[in-house]
């Protein structure tokens, strides 16, 4: 989850680098949840997250920030982020059950890649 790397906001603020960050927020530890869904019969353990307000945290570091909750808002939000001359944090709220592919299961080879 993003909270594992949130200290990068302090580095961005201190060094004044124009980094663009996009967080896909499904309110889970996404890859762990996906593995539990696909390989452990949807037995979810310690993967659902109660997240802080990431946009407010980014703004606390003087980083421009926005949250997108609707698909139709995404294109304009990305354009706004790219047009910004400074650092920018974009939180994109996605469905909890969205999975990330391609992926290779543990112990498998590249020829065993899963596309869905």
Features of the shown structure:
116 residues, Rossmann fold, elongated, transferase, Acetolactate synthase large subunit, TPP_enz
Task: Describe this protein's structure.
- Helix 4 links the parallel strand 2 and strand 3.
- The mean pLDDT is 92.
- Strands 1-3-2 form a three-stranded parallel beta sheet, sandwiched between helices.
- It has four helices and three strands, in the order H-E-H-H-E-H-E.
- It has one domain: Thiamin diphosphate (ThDP)-binding fold, Pyr/PP domains (Rossmann fold).
- By secondary structure, it is an alpha/beta fold.
- One of its GO terms (biological process) is L-valine biosynthetic process.
- One of its GO terms (cellular component) is acetolactate synthase complex.
- Keywords: Transferase.
- This is Acetolactate synthase large subunit.
- Belongs to the TPP enzyme family.
CATH class type:
Alpha Beta
How many β strands by DSSP?
Answer: 3
Termini gap: 22 Å
- Secondary structure category: alpha/beta
Radius of gyration: 16 Å
SSE arrangement, N to C: HEHHEHE
How many structural domains are formed by the residues? 1
Low-confidence stretches: none
Q: How is the main sheet built?
A: 3 strands, parallel
Strand content: 5-15%
CATH architecture: 3-Layer(aba) Sandwich
**Shape descriptor:** elongated
- The CATH superfamily appears as Thiamin diphosphate (ThDP)-binding fold, Pyr/PP domains
What's the helix count?
4
- Give the rounded overall mean pLDDT: 92
Return the CATH topology. Rossmann fold
Arrangement of strands in the largest sheet: 1-3-2
The oligomeric status of these chains comes to single chain
Helix content: 25-40%
Organism: Seonamhaeicola marinus
GO biological process, one term: L-valine biosynthetic process
Pfam families: TPP_enzyme_C
GO molecular function, one term: thiamine pyrophosphate binding
């Amino acid at each position: 989850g993003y909270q594992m790397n949130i200290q990068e906001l302090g580095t961005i603020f201190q060094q004044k680098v124009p980094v663009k960050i996009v967080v896909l927020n499904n309110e889970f530890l996404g890859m762990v949840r996906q593995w539990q869904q696909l390989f452990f019969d949807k037995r979810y353990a310690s993967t659902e997250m109660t997240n802080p307000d990431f946009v407010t945290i980014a703004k606390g570091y003087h980083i421009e920030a926005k949250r997108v909750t609707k698909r139709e808002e995404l294109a304009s939000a990305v354009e706004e982020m790219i047009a910004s001359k400074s650092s920018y944090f974009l939180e994109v709220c996605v469905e909890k059950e969205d999975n990330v592919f391609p992926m290779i299961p543990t112990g498998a080879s590249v020829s065993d890649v899963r596309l869905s």
